[in-house]
């Protein structure tokens, strides 16, 4: 046997991904499970001359096939028959974690149990007799602390054919008895509902019998976990703490880390790169139109988006970190009551939090909700959670019109998005989607400090899509915008006579009372439906070209100057609000179609968000004028 | 004395008597370890909001609706 196939199975929050990353390192890739959009992570571990193929199964609490993830895990185990299943168990929460283990053992798949989080278990006062645990469960058990690589080598050593053999041979009288009982219950011919119940009870009975012999639980110290939770989930303090954390997140992104790096990159793109490219193009004697395409089209367009990469990666890094600490589950708790008002449970807030990264996975995440009604509401309001692609728009406008107050301005947009989501949820609940909220039931994981490797990998997974988009959609959009802005039907033209100006001119009157009724913003709004970053790249091409006509200098700086002439700080804010709320991008609309399976709802999602954005930004602009913020 | 879990005060330890309702909700609770005879502690609760309970060595959050269907005795 030169290669063995190993599957990692375990509950969520057990450090399974950390172990997977530690085992496979960079030798992994992410695909989809057949027919569904749940991530399938596959990787390799090379051990001498042997290869170990590792699949990271979705984290599940059981194998009962109620949820999509559970069905994926069960189907994989039954159909693909991996040589060995490594069951990652959180030792500090062993009783409930063993529930999945028992189901694995019932299935009869060769299982190696790795007791993870042993440090936490110890501080909780748990002492294990691993030998006895292995005897009782009838399968090999090793211990590990994935975050500090303890026991990882032992795990690597165990991934071989002798463990597979051992796991098949050991067996235990206690387990045999349990399996016999389950089989008898299944054959008893009683009501299936009742049978399932008795099987669940018998599993927990088995677990209790095993732990009675293998675990000594002493009184642990009262952990800082509980004390922290008293604050974080406090009825009065909970929400302000959440807002404060969000504020710190944006402060770090815009003031401390992301923005300064972005500024450096911006400087490089707008001076060094532009100069160099223009010099090179002149040197090789490229035609004028080609020079213009590269400098005014591609560098101005793609460059204006690429400079935001450090900003976006910083934000994604911080969100991934926060996710790893377990704080997000507390947010679900804090938001449960507010979510109940709009007919959803706190659980529905989690996909919406994902929406801060990208709306596409947020809409897919809504699948975890139990009823069709909940899923529909969540999908319809998720686009209001401001995604990473909208960030460049805020970053550009906030830096221009609200210097020194970027974090507050951007935070206000994010909060407005949440408020709009809740408001629209309320509207849906009291009109079309009447009914009760889905019951809320979720594990509360302890706080943990995530490993750097896991956080970085997640940041990369989330941010990668942004880079790919910059190279594909944004690139081709920039070329197209340049083309349309440099020509009309009779040939090369000045920009204000171009085809693009004509197209933008049709849209512009829509925003006559919004303070941004120029044809340029009309075009930006249109391209933003293809991808939200395109709002910035379009403005980059349009305002870049006008100013850079004579000589290729500091495109981006000039772009700022020329935008400043068209917008006031009030209309800039109205424009940001419009960008926040209006029709989601094509990728999102495609996902909505896929998830809701209906054109009617997809078109509705596209139309009502546009209408809402139009009204809200109008109110903000006109209200602002009345209050005297017109300057 | 039996009462629903949402009527239990913070800090109390109670024992599950019965789970009302049926089907998925009941099954889901049972799989998470909410089985008659199991002790649990109410760690956090606030008026009409969700609860945190400690059960089987771990913590679980549940909404009012769920808690209403779990009958417990002290």
From TrEMBL, chain A:
Binding site for GTP 1: 10-17
Binding site for GTP 5: 145-147
Transmembrane annotation, as ranges: 236-256, 302-322, 342-365, 377-402, 408-428, 466-487, 499-516, 523-546, 566-589, 601-621
InterPro entries for this protein: Fe2_transport_prot-B, Fe2_transport_prot_B_C, FeoB_GTPase, G_FEOB_dom, Gate_dom, GTP-bd, P-loop_NTPase, Small_GTP-bd
Zinc listed as a keyword: no
Record-listed GTP 3 binding positions: 56-59
Membrane topology term: Multi-pass membrane protein
Ligand binding (GTP 2): 35-39
Keywords: Cell inner membrane, Cell membrane, GTP-binding, Ion transport, Iron, Iron transport, Magnesium, Membrane, Metal-binding, Nucleotide-binding, Transmembrane, Transmembrane helix, Transport
Binding site for Mg(2+) 1: 22
Superkingdom, natural source: Bacteria
One Pfam entry name: FeoB_N
MF term (GO), any: metal ion binding
Domain FeoB-type G intervals: 3-165
Compartments (UniProt record): Cell inner membrane; Cell membrane
Binding residue positions for GTP 4: 116-119
Function recorded in the entry: Probable transporter of a GTP-driven Fe(2+) uptake system.
Protein name: Ferrous iron transport protein B
From TrEMBL, chain B:
Record Pfam families: FeoA
Keyword DNA damage: no
SMART domains: FeoA
Residue intervals of the Ferrous iron transporter FeoA-like domain: 3-74
Keyword Iron: yes
GO molecular function, one term: transition metal ion binding
Keywords, ordered alphabetically: Iron
InterPro entries (UniProt xref): Fe-transptr_FeoA-like (IPR007167), FeoA-like (IPR053184), FeoA_core_dom (IPR038157), Transcriptional_repressor_C (IPR008988)
PANTHER family: FEOA FAMILY PROTEIN, SSR2333 PROTEIN
Name of the molecule in the record: Ferrous iron transport protein A
